[in-house]
Amino acid sequence: MKPADDSLRPWELEKSEPGPDLKVFKSRFDWRINPRNRHRLKCLVLESRDWVNIVARTPEKEIVLVKQFRFGRGEVSIEIPGGIVDAGESHAAAARRELREETGFEGENWSYLGASEPNPAILDNLCHHWFVDGVVRRHETEFDAGEDIVILKAKEDEVKKMISRGLLRHSLVLVALGRVITLPPIAALP
Amino acid sequence: MKPADDSLRPWELEKSEPGPDLKVFKSRFDWRINPRNRHRLKCLVLESRDWVNIVARTPEKEIVLVKQFRFGRGEVSIEIPGGIVDAGESHAAAARRELREETGFEGENWSYLGASEPNPAILDNLCHHWFVDGVVRRHETEFDAGEDIVILKAKEDEVKKMISRGLLRHSLVLVALGRVITLPPIAALP
After folding, report:
1. Structural domain range at position B137
2. Chain A partners of B76 at a C-beta cutoff of 8 Å?
3. Which value does ipTM take for this structure?
Protein backbone atom coordinates (compact mmCIF):
# COMPACT_ATOMS: atom_id res chain seq x y z
CA MET A 1 0.00 0.00 0.00
CA LYS A 2 3.09 2.25 0.09
CA PRO A 3 4.02 4.34 -2.94
CA ALA A 4 7.02 2.08 -3.62
CA ASP A 5 4.65 -0.88 -4.08
CA ASP A 6 3.20 0.90 -7.04
CA SER A 7 6.20 0.18 -9.29
CA LEU A 8 4.91 -2.92 -11.02
CA ARG A 9 7.38 -4.39 -13.49
CA PRO A 10 6.49 -5.82 -16.91
CA TRP A 11 7.05 -9.55 -17.42
CA GLU A 12 9.99 -10.42 -19.65
CA LEU A 13 8.94 -12.32 -22.79
CA GLU A 14 11.06 -15.46 -23.05
CA LYS A 15 9.57 -16.98 -26.20
CA SER A 16 6.37 -17.11 -28.19
CA GLU A 17 4.83 -19.83 -30.36
CA PRO A 18 1.67 -20.23 -32.47
CA GLY A 19 -1.27 -21.96 -30.80
CA PRO A 20 -4.14 -23.94 -32.32
CA ASP A 21 -6.22 -22.53 -35.19
CA LEU A 22 -9.45 -20.98 -33.87
CA LYS A 23 -10.96 -19.55 -37.09
CA VAL A 24 -11.87 -16.09 -35.72
CA PHE A 25 -8.68 -15.63 -33.70
CA LYS A 26 -5.07 -16.47 -34.11
CA SER A 27 -3.96 -18.03 -30.84
CA ARG A 28 -0.45 -17.94 -29.46
CA PHE A 29 1.35 -19.06 -26.32
CA ASP A 30 3.83 -16.67 -24.70
CA TRP A 31 6.30 -17.77 -22.07
CA ARG A 32 6.67 -14.93 -19.54
CA ILE A 33 8.99 -14.56 -16.55
CA ASN A 34 7.36 -13.31 -13.32
CA PRO A 35 9.62 -10.41 -12.18
CA ARG A 36 8.71 -11.16 -8.53
CA ASN A 37 10.08 -14.70 -8.39
CA ARG A 38 11.47 -15.55 -11.88
CA HIS A 39 8.69 -18.15 -12.21
CA ARG A 40 8.10 -19.09 -15.88
CA LEU A 41 4.48 -19.05 -17.07
CA LYS A 42 2.89 -20.23 -20.32
CA CYS A 43 0.20 -17.68 -21.25
CA LEU A 44 -2.55 -17.97 -23.86
CA VAL A 45 -3.01 -14.91 -26.07
CA LEU A 46 -5.85 -14.60 -28.58
CA GLU A 47 -4.75 -12.26 -31.35
CA SER A 48 -7.52 -10.18 -32.87
CA ARG A 49 -7.88 -7.05 -34.95
CA ASP A 50 -9.48 -4.14 -33.10
CA TRP A 51 -13.26 -4.05 -32.87
CA VAL A 52 -15.69 -1.13 -33.19
CA ASN A 53 -19.22 -0.57 -31.99
CA ILE A 54 -21.57 2.30 -32.70
CA VAL A 55 -24.29 4.12 -30.77
CA ALA A 56 -26.38 5.48 -33.67
CA ARG A 57 -29.30 7.81 -32.88
CA THR A 58 -32.03 8.86 -35.30
CA PRO A 59 -33.50 12.41 -35.50
CA GLU A 60 -36.45 10.94 -33.51
CA LYS A 61 -33.95 10.12 -30.71
CA GLU A 62 -34.21 6.38 -31.26
CA ILE A 63 -31.13 4.19 -30.89
CA VAL A 64 -30.46 1.66 -33.67
CA LEU A 65 -30.17 -1.90 -32.32
CA VAL A 66 -29.41 -5.24 -33.93
CA LYS A 67 -30.86 -8.52 -32.76
CA GLN A 68 -28.99 -11.69 -33.66
CA PHE A 69 -28.39 -15.22 -32.49
CA ARG A 70 -25.01 -15.39 -30.71
CA PHE A 71 -23.13 -18.66 -30.84
CA GLY A 72 -21.13 -18.30 -27.62
CA ARG A 73 -24.16 -17.93 -25.38
CA GLY A 74 -26.43 -19.90 -27.77
CA GLU A 75 -29.05 -17.18 -27.37
CA VAL A 76 -30.61 -14.27 -29.21
CA SER A 77 -28.82 -11.06 -28.18
CA ILE A 78 -29.79 -7.40 -28.57
CA GLU A 79 -26.77 -5.20 -29.26
CA ILE A 80 -25.67 -2.02 -30.98
CA PRO A 81 -24.07 -2.45 -34.44
CA GLY A 82 -20.40 -3.34 -34.49
CA GLY A 83 -17.72 -5.45 -36.05
CA ILE A 84 -14.07 -5.95 -36.86
CA VAL A 85 -11.72 -3.29 -38.25
CA ASP A 86 -10.41 -4.50 -41.63
CA ALA A 87 -6.68 -4.63 -42.45
CA GLY A 88 -5.48 -1.15 -43.45
CA GLU A 89 -8.77 0.43 -42.35
CA SER A 90 -9.05 3.10 -39.63
CA HIS A 91 -11.47 2.39 -36.81
CA ALA A 92 -13.34 5.56 -37.82
CA ALA A 93 -13.91 4.12 -41.31
CA ALA A 94 -14.80 0.71 -39.87
CA ALA A 95 -17.50 2.26 -37.67
CA ARG A 96 -19.11 3.95 -40.70
CA ARG A 97 -18.86 0.78 -42.80
CA GLU A 98 -20.25 -1.56 -40.11
CA LEU A 99 -23.20 0.73 -39.40
CA ARG A 100 -24.03 0.90 -43.12
CA GLU A 101 -23.54 -2.82 -43.83
CA GLU A 102 -25.37 -4.11 -40.76
CA THR A 103 -28.26 -1.65 -40.63
CA GLY A 104 -28.37 0.49 -43.80
CA PHE A 105 -28.19 3.63 -41.62
CA GLU A 106 -25.82 6.53 -42.32
CA GLY A 107 -25.05 9.82 -40.62
CA GLU A 108 -22.59 12.68 -40.66
CA ASN A 109 -22.37 13.79 -37.04
CA TRP A 110 -19.78 11.36 -35.59
CA SER A 111 -17.92 11.59 -32.29
CA TYR A 112 -15.36 9.21 -30.85
CA LEU A 113 -16.20 7.83 -27.39
CA GLY A 114 -12.77 6.28 -26.74
CA ALA A 115 -11.51 2.72 -26.54
CA SER A 116 -11.88 -0.04 -23.99
CA GLU A 117 -10.19 -3.42 -23.65
CA PRO A 118 -12.46 -6.41 -24.39
CA ASN A 119 -10.26 -8.54 -22.10
CA PRO A 120 -6.62 -7.55 -21.44
CA ALA A 121 -5.94 -10.92 -19.76
CA ILE A 122 -6.47 -12.92 -22.94
CA LEU A 123 -7.15 -10.68 -25.93
CA ASP A 124 -4.60 -8.27 -27.41
CA ASN A 125 -7.10 -5.88 -29.00
CA LEU A 126 -9.17 -2.78 -28.26
CA CYS A 127 -12.82 -1.97 -28.94
CA HIS A 128 -13.35 1.56 -30.27
CA HIS A 129 -16.67 3.13 -29.35
CA TRP A 130 -18.37 5.67 -31.65
CA PHE A 131 -21.47 7.84 -31.45
CA VAL A 132 -23.32 9.17 -34.49
CA ASP A 133 -26.33 11.43 -34.18
CA GLY A 134 -29.14 12.03 -36.69
CA VAL A 135 -28.78 8.82 -38.70
CA VAL A 136 -31.19 7.94 -41.51
CA ARG A 137 -31.70 4.66 -43.35
CA ARG A 138 -30.28 5.03 -46.86
CA HIS A 139 -29.52 1.44 -47.91
CA GLU A 140 -30.93 -2.02 -47.83
CA THR A 141 -28.94 -4.41 -45.66
CA GLU A 142 -27.15 -7.31 -47.31
CA PHE A 143 -26.31 -10.13 -44.97
CA ASP A 144 -23.73 -12.86 -45.48
CA ALA A 145 -24.93 -16.44 -45.72
CA GLY A 146 -23.74 -16.79 -42.12
CA GLU A 147 -25.85 -13.89 -40.76
CA ASP A 148 -29.48 -13.44 -39.71
CA ILE A 149 -30.01 -10.00 -38.23
CA VAL A 150 -33.11 -8.03 -37.28
CA ILE A 151 -32.85 -4.24 -36.92
CA LEU A 152 -34.74 -2.46 -34.15
CA LYS A 153 -35.05 1.17 -33.10
CA ALA A 154 -35.72 2.03 -29.47
CA LYS A 155 -36.08 5.22 -27.46
CA GLU A 156 -33.67 5.75 -24.59
CA ASP A 157 -36.32 4.63 -22.07
CA GLU A 158 -36.91 1.38 -23.95
CA VAL A 159 -33.17 0.71 -24.12
CA LYS A 160 -33.01 1.18 -20.36
CA LYS A 161 -35.86 -1.29 -19.90
CA MET A 162 -34.03 -3.85 -22.06
CA ILE A 163 -30.95 -3.46 -19.86
CA SER A 164 -32.97 -3.69 -16.62
CA ARG A 165 -34.62 -6.87 -17.89
CA GLY A 166 -31.35 -8.49 -18.91
CA LEU A 167 -32.22 -8.50 -22.63
CA LEU A 168 -29.25 -6.30 -23.47
CA ARG A 169 -26.14 -7.20 -21.49
CA HIS A 170 -23.15 -7.49 -23.82
CA SER A 171 -20.41 -5.77 -21.80
CA LEU A 172 -18.93 -3.84 -24.75
CA VAL A 173 -22.39 -2.59 -25.68
CA LEU A 174 -22.98 -1.42 -22.10
CA VAL A 175 -19.64 0.43 -22.11
CA ALA A 176 -20.55 2.28 -25.33
CA LEU A 177 -24.15 3.04 -24.30
CA GLY A 178 -22.94 4.24 -20.89
CA ARG A 179 -21.04 7.05 -22.63
CA VAL A 180 -24.28 8.35 -24.19
CA ILE A 181 -27.13 7.52 -21.80
CA THR A 182 -27.34 6.96 -18.04
CA LEU A 183 -27.51 3.21 -17.55
CA PRO A 184 -30.00 1.64 -15.16
CA PRO A 185 -29.02 -1.24 -12.88
CA ILE A 186 -28.26 -4.43 -14.81
CA ALA A 187 -30.75 -7.23 -14.35
CA ALA A 188 -29.90 -9.17 -11.22
CA LEU A 189 -29.77 -12.93 -11.59
CA PRO A 190 -29.94 -15.37 -8.69
CA MET B 1 -38.41 -2.63 -39.23
CA LYS B 2 -41.95 -4.04 -38.99
CA PRO B 3 -43.05 -5.83 -35.83
CA ALA B 4 -43.06 -9.17 -37.71
CA ASP B 5 -39.31 -8.73 -38.38
CA ASP B 6 -38.75 -8.92 -34.66
CA SER B 7 -39.33 -12.69 -34.45
CA LEU B 8 -35.74 -13.86 -34.69
CA ARG B 9 -35.40 -17.63 -34.62
CA PRO B 10 -32.69 -19.57 -32.77
CA TRP B 11 -30.22 -21.53 -34.87
CA GLU B 12 -30.65 -25.30 -34.77
CA LEU B 13 -27.62 -27.11 -33.33
CA GLU B 14 -26.57 -29.83 -35.77
CA LYS B 15 -23.54 -31.18 -33.94
CA SER B 16 -20.83 -30.16 -31.53
CA GLU B 17 -17.21 -31.30 -31.13
CA PRO B 18 -14.28 -30.46 -28.82
CA GLY B 19 -11.78 -27.90 -30.14
CA PRO B 20 -8.08 -27.47 -29.33
CA ASP B 21 -6.87 -27.28 -25.74
CA LEU B 22 -6.43 -23.65 -24.64
CA LYS B 23 -5.48 -24.07 -20.97
CA VAL B 24 -7.84 -21.41 -19.51
CA PHE B 25 -10.79 -22.30 -21.72
CA LYS B 26 -12.29 -25.41 -23.15
CA SER B 27 -12.93 -24.70 -26.81
CA ARG B 28 -15.63 -26.33 -28.90
CA PHE B 29 -16.96 -26.07 -32.42
CA ASP B 30 -20.73 -26.03 -32.95
CA TRP B 31 -22.34 -26.55 -36.33
CA ARG B 32 -25.43 -24.32 -36.52
CA ILE B 33 -28.09 -24.01 -39.20
CA ASN B 34 -29.05 -20.46 -40.22
CA PRO B 35 -32.88 -20.41 -40.01
CA ARG B 36 -33.00 -17.77 -42.77
CA ASN B 37 -31.35 -19.83 -45.52
CA ARG B 38 -30.44 -23.25 -43.98
CA HIS B 39 -26.76 -22.33 -44.42
CA ARG B 40 -24.52 -24.46 -42.15
CA LEU B 41 -21.94 -22.60 -40.08
CA LYS B 42 -19.04 -23.87 -37.96
CA CYS B 43 -18.91 -21.66 -34.84
CA LEU B 44 -16.15 -21.39 -32.24
CA VAL B 45 -17.33 -21.41 -28.63
CA LEU B 46 -14.97 -20.83 -25.70
CA GLU B 47 -16.41 -22.54 -22.63
CA SER B 48 -15.69 -20.82 -19.36
CA ARG B 49 -17.03 -20.79 -15.83
CA ASP B 50 -18.71 -17.53 -14.85
CA TRP B 51 -16.54 -14.65 -13.70
CA VAL B 52 -17.03 -12.14 -10.87
CA ASN B 53 -15.64 -8.70 -10.22
CA ILE B 54 -16.01 -6.51 -7.18
CA VAL B 55 -16.28 -2.78 -6.52
CA ALA B 56 -15.00 -2.62 -2.91
CA ARG B 57 -15.13 0.73 -1.08
CA THR B 58 -13.40 1.54 2.19
CA PRO B 59 -14.97 3.63 5.01
CA GLU B 60 -12.76 6.49 3.65
CA LYS B 61 -14.64 6.15 0.32
CA GLU B 62 -11.64 4.75 -1.50
CA ILE B 63 -12.08 2.05 -4.14
CA VAL B 64 -9.76 -0.96 -3.93
CA LEU B 65 -7.84 -1.51 -7.18
CA VAL B 66 -5.39 -4.16 -8.35
CA LYS B 67 -2.54 -3.49 -10.71
CA GLN B 68 -1.12 -6.42 -12.64
CA PHE B 69 0.63 -7.31 -15.85
CA ARG B 70 -1.92 -8.70 -18.33
CA PHE B 71 -0.70 -11.21 -20.87
CA GLY B 72 -3.25 -10.54 -23.63
CA ARG B 73 -2.39 -6.86 -24.01
CA GLY B 74 1.19 -7.37 -22.76
CA GLU B 75 0.76 -4.34 -20.51
CA VAL B 76 0.24 -3.38 -16.88
CA SER B 77 -3.49 -2.96 -16.25
CA ILE B 78 -5.38 -1.31 -13.38
CA GLU B 79 -8.58 -3.16 -12.52
CA ILE B 80 -10.96 -3.96 -9.70
CA PRO B 81 -10.50 -7.37 -8.02
CA GLY B 82 -12.11 -10.32 -9.75
CA GLY B 83 -11.73 -13.90 -10.84
CA ILE B 84 -13.35 -17.17 -11.76
CA VAL B 85 -16.24 -18.83 -9.90
CA ASP B 86 -15.07 -22.24 -8.65
CA ALA B 87 -16.98 -25.47 -9.37
CA GLY B 88 -19.89 -25.77 -6.93
CA GLU B 89 -19.35 -22.24 -5.64
CA SER B 90 -21.99 -19.49 -5.85
CA HIS B 91 -20.92 -16.25 -7.51
CA ALA B 92 -21.72 -14.49 -4.22
CA ALA B 93 -19.18 -16.69 -2.42
CA ALA B 94 -16.66 -16.30 -5.25
CA ALA B 95 -16.84 -12.50 -4.98
CA ARG B 96 -16.06 -12.64 -1.24
CA ARG B 97 -13.24 -15.17 -1.77
CA GLU B 98 -11.61 -13.30 -4.67
CA LEU B 99 -11.66 -10.00 -2.78
CA ARG B 100 -10.04 -11.62 0.25
CA GLU B 101 -7.46 -13.64 -1.70
CA GLU B 102 -6.41 -10.88 -4.09
CA THR B 103 -6.43 -7.92 -1.72
CA GLY B 104 -6.86 -9.07 1.90
CA PHE B 105 -9.94 -6.83 2.21
CA GLU B 106 -13.23 -8.00 3.72
CA GLY B 107 -16.61 -6.42 4.27
CA GLU B 108 -20.17 -7.26 5.26
CA ASN B 109 -22.31 -4.83 3.29
CA TRP B 110 -22.65 -6.58 -0.09
CA SER B 111 -25.02 -5.79 -2.95
CA TYR B 112 -25.38 -7.54 -6.30
CA LEU B 113 -25.03 -5.27 -9.32
CA GLY B 114 -26.25 -7.81 -11.89
CA ALA B 115 -24.55 -9.78 -14.64
CA SER B 116 -23.17 -8.85 -18.05
CA GLU B 117 -21.92 -10.99 -20.92
CA PRO B 118 -18.15 -10.80 -21.48
CA ASN B 119 -18.72 -11.68 -25.15
CA PRO B 120 -21.89 -13.55 -26.22
CA ALA B 121 -20.47 -14.13 -29.72
CA ILE B 122 -17.64 -16.36 -28.50
CA LEU B 123 -17.85 -16.98 -24.76
CA ASP B 124 -20.66 -18.89 -23.06
CA ASN B 125 -20.29 -17.29 -19.63
CA LEU B 126 -21.48 -14.33 -17.56
CA CYS B 127 -19.60 -11.88 -15.38
CA HIS B 128 -21.35 -11.14 -12.08
CA HIS B 129 -20.74 -7.68 -10.66
CA TRP B 130 -20.74 -7.05 -6.90
CA PHE B 131 -20.45 -3.99 -4.68
CA VAL B 132 -19.25 -4.09 -1.08
CA ASP B 133 -19.10 -0.99 1.09
CA GLY B 134 -17.00 -0.34 4.19
CA VAL B 135 -14.24 -2.90 3.54
CA VAL B 136 -11.20 -3.19 5.79
CA ARG B 137 -7.93 -5.04 5.26
CA ARG B 138 -7.90 -8.08 7.53
CA HIS B 139 -5.45 -10.45 5.82
CA GLU B 140 -2.12 -10.51 4.09
CA THR B 141 -2.35 -11.41 0.43
CA GLU B 142 -0.80 -14.64 -0.77
CA PHE B 143 -0.10 -14.76 -4.45
CA ASP B 144 0.42 -17.83 -6.62
CA ALA B 145 3.79 -18.29 -8.27
CA GLY B 146 2.09 -17.04 -11.45
CA GLU B 147 0.89 -13.76 -9.95
CA ASP B 148 2.45 -10.37 -9.24
CA ILE B 149 -0.18 -7.94 -7.99
CA VAL B 150 0.00 -4.47 -6.44
CA ILE B 151 -2.98 -3.20 -4.43
CA LEU B 152 -4.02 0.44 -4.70
CA LYS B 153 -6.76 2.51 -3.10
CA ALA B 154 -8.17 5.49 -4.97
CA LYS B 155 -10.89 8.06 -4.30
CA GLU B 156 -13.71 8.26 -6.83
CA ASP B 157 -12.12 11.34 -8.46
CA GLU B 158 -8.80 9.54 -8.91
CA VAL B 159 -10.57 6.53 -10.45
CA LYS B 160 -12.26 8.87 -12.90
CA LYS B 161 -8.88 10.38 -13.81
CA MET B 162 -7.46 6.91 -14.46
CA ILE B 163 -10.36 6.19 -16.80
CA SER B 164 -10.02 9.55 -18.59
CA ARG B 165 -6.32 8.91 -19.10
CA GLY B 166 -6.83 5.40 -20.44
CA LEU B 167 -5.06 3.73 -17.49
CA LEU B 168 -8.19 1.80 -16.51
CA ARG B 169 -10.09 0.49 -19.52
CA HIS B 170 -10.98 -3.17 -19.02
CA SER B 171 -14.56 -3.31 -20.32
CA LEU B 172 -15.88 -5.54 -17.51
CA VAL B 173 -14.33 -3.23 -14.92
CA LEU B 174 -15.98 -0.22 -16.57
CA VAL B 175 -19.37 -2.00 -16.53
CA ALA B 176 -19.07 -2.71 -12.78
CA LEU B 177 -17.73 0.74 -11.86
CA GLY B 178 -20.47 2.37 -13.96
CA ARG B 179 -23.07 0.88 -11.61
CA VAL B 180 -21.48 2.66 -8.62
CA ILE B 181 -19.92 5.91 -9.91
CA THR B 182 -20.66 8.16 -12.87
CA LEU B 183 -18.01 7.35 -15.47
CA PRO B 184 -16.14 10.10 -17.30
CA PRO B 185 -15.46 9.83 -21.05
CA ILE B 186 -13.01 7.04 -21.87
CA ALA B 187 -9.62 8.17 -23.11
CA ALA B 188 -9.78 8.83 -26.84
CA LEU B 189 -7.00 7.28 -28.91
CA PRO B 190 -6.08 8.37 -32.42
Report:
1. 51-177
2. 8, 10
3. 0.90
